[in-house]
TrEMBL record:
UniProt keyword annotation of Coiled coil present: no
List of catalytic residues: K109
Protein's UniProt name: Glutamate dehydrogenase
Annotated ranges, domain Glutamate/phenylalanine/leucine/valine/L-tryptophan dehydrogenase C-terminal: 186-416
Keyword terms of this UniProt record: NAD, Nucleotide-binding, Oxidoreductase
GO MF entry, a single one: glutamate dehydrogenase (NAD+) activity
Organism superkingdom: Bacteria
Length: 419
């Protein structure tokens, strides 16, 4: 595992971000008590028969932070460093994110503490199915709808959908999003997070008067979110000068050939050794002088320790929680423009919403339809956040949180308290 380790507790970061935005909104204490903390937290034990015959016990979670605006919505992460606090943080961010892009979902998240890179397909399938069975009372198309996150993909979603459907006795595609197209997935879902991130970068460049054509870009994390954002930026004429994944960092100041790199990564599973590139240290990637930095790996990539070294003018948070509050303060003082995660990477959940709508209606859209609707949602949301940023003279992160938290608070006020 490379570079940036988890230094701050992500849930503390989520709570601190909440407080800053709630203060700026002037939110009363009763409302804070109602919306700040997760509604439901489930910890489950997942025993799995491994290929060598022994039984391994995995610890796993599903957290529903809020259902104030609709069913809980959020991905499932398979990673050795998954903790309950991390899942709670990610669920909290999902609530504000769905509200920022104004889709009728609340926030949830799930995770299994495991090392998927060292598990066979059979072990992954058995673990996923047993986990699905353990969280089954909580999930459903109108209750809580999982999706892919780090080291989970459309195959994982197919196993979840099948396990859920087998238990209920009929096929229920709407229980998860990010499914394969042949099982009720949406065209454009796979690339939605990177595409949404790209649209927000376009907006930021326009706002800051930076031409995207010729702009220099560094991307940390070359998975689903990072590679698609890199591909679209490359197609728009930007120069991707550095890329990393968990195995290494590569650099070419003239720009990397992103389609070729994606092809190599698909075959080899890594980016290091890409022809025409030179290896650099992970810390050096973050410190590169460039127009746009896209952190697209995990939380806490930029902290109070290394924020001063950041050389980018725009930081587009494709990942969830890559900047700590200390990093935010330093970067703001340096004049960097941050596109906060709950806006920047909201394309994934937006197209997840489109997928759910299509599943519920049994009527499927063309890819261009999905792209057009996504572009509209992302650009409108960017404009809404930017307006608060300018009018209220707060950071883009606080502005995005104000928009999301304000909408959830409104829903809670209208619903009142039960009983
Ligand atoms: P992924 O598993 O497809 O890719 C993760 C990438 O990060 C891999 O290339 C991995 O090698 C790399 N990585 C891991 N640790 C690293 C490190 N220390 N340094 C550099 N690279 C490292 O996952 P993803 O779906 O692309 O998710 C990435 C981030 O985007 C996460 O924070 C996730 O929560 C967020 N996100 C994803 C989606 C989505 O739809 N996939 C939606 C919203 C947010």
């Amino acid at each position: 595992m490379l570079a940036t380790k988890l230094v701050d507790n992500a849930y503390d970061v989520a709570l601190e971000n909440f407080d800053s935005a709630a203060d700026a909104l002037g939110l009363d204490n009763d409302t804070r008590e109602m919306i700040k903390f997760p509604e439901r937290v489930l910890t489950v034990t997942v025993p799995v028969r491994m290929d060598d015959g022994h039984i391994h016990r995995f610890e796993a979670y599903r957290v529903q932070h809020s259902t104030a605006r609709g069913p809980a919505k959020g991905g499932i992460r398979f990673h050795p460093q998954v903790t309950l606090d991390e899942v709670k943080a990610l669920a909290t961010w999902m609530t504000w994110k769905c509200a920022v892009v104004n889709i009728p979902f609340g926030g949830g998240k799930g995770g299994i503490t495991c090392d998927p890179k060292h598990m066979s397909q059979g072990e992954l399938e058995r673990m996923t199915r047993r986990y699905t069975s353990a969280i089954l009372p909580l999930i459903g198309p109108d209750q809580d709808i999982p999706a892919p996150d780090v080291y989970t993909n459309s195959q994982t979603m197919a196993w979840i959908m099948d396990t859920y459907s087998m238990t209920k006795g009929y096929t229920i595609p709407g229980v998860v999003t990010g499914k394969p197209i042949s099982l009720g997935g949406s065209l454009g879902r796979n690339e939605a997070t990177g595409r949404g991130c790209f649209y927000t970068i376009q907006c930021a460049c326009e706002h800051l008067d930076i031409p995207l054509k010729g702009a220099t870009v560094a991307v940390q994390g070359f998975g689903n979110a990072g590679s698609i954002a890199a591909q679209l930026l490359h197609e728009a004429g930007a120069r991707i000068i550095a890329v990393s994944d968990s195995t290494g960092c590569i650099y070419n100041r003239d720009g990397l050939d992103i389609p070729e790199l994606m092809h190599m990564k698909e075959i080899t599973g890594h980016v290091y050794g890409f022809p025409g590139s030179e290896p650099i240290e992970p810390a050096a990637l973050l410190a590169l002088k460039c127009d746009i930095l896209v952190p697209a790996a995990l939380e806490n990539a930029v902290t109070g320790e290394n924020a001063n070294t950041i050389g980018a003018r725009i930081i587009a948070e494709a990942a969830n929680g890559p900047l700590t509050p200390a990093a935010d303060r330093i970067l703001e003082a340096k004049g960097a423009f941050v596109i906060p995660d709950i806006l920047c990477n909201a394309g994934g959940v937006t197209v997840s919403y489109f997928e759910w709508v299509q599943d519920e209606q049994h009527l499927f859209w063309e890819a261009q339809d999905v792209y057009n609707r996504l572009e509209k949602v992302m650009k409108t949301s960017f404009k809404d956040v930017l307006k608060i940023h300018i009018d209220r003279n707060v950071s883009m992160r606080i502005a995005a949180n104000m928009l999301g938290i304000g909408r959830v608070a409104e829903a809670i006020h209208l619903r009142g308290i039960y009983p």
